[in-house]
Design brief:
Layout (H helix, E strand, L loop, with lengths): L5 E8 L4 E9 L4 E5 L4 E6 L2 E8 L5 E5 L11 E2 L7 E2 L2 E9 L2 E10 L1
Antiparallel strand pairs: 1-10, 2-9, 3-4, 4-5, 5-10, 6-9, 7-8
């Protein structure tokens, strides 16, 4: 049984060998606070507050993008319709690690 208002998502990567892995979370648009120290993103929205916090292998690098990269290497965009592109806060966790390993995301929601 988990904590009320907290979701835990565990991505378990199975297999063998070293692999480059990227995990992306597209957050609701709003005022954001990003902490690379705690690998977390806080989004304040009129409907409430959301905190995403990621844990994984020791070399896990977490970054935040919002509408970056243009056409060459876009990051932090959403497209709801064909030929539409809108900036969207996107939390990306990247690592090169030996399988198997896990990345855990804790999502805290409050009003």
């Amino acid at each position: 049984m988990g904590e009320p208002g907290v979701w835990v998502v565990t991505d378990e990567l199975l297999g063998r060998g070293d692999h480059d892995v990227a995990l992306r979370w597209h957050a609701v648009d709003g005022a954001t606070q990003f902490s690379p120290v705690t690998n977390s993103l806080t989004v304040n929205h009129p409907n409430g507050r959301m905190l995403l916090q990621l844990q994984g292998p020791k070399d896990l690098k977490v970054t935040l993008a919002r509408g970056e990269g243009g056409t060459s290497r876009p990051s932090g965009w959403e497209s709801r319709y064909y030929q539409e592109r809108l900036p969207r806060p996107t939390l990306t966790a990247q690592v090169r690690a030996t399988l198997p390993f896990m990345i855990t995301t804790r999502i805290f929601l409050s009003t």
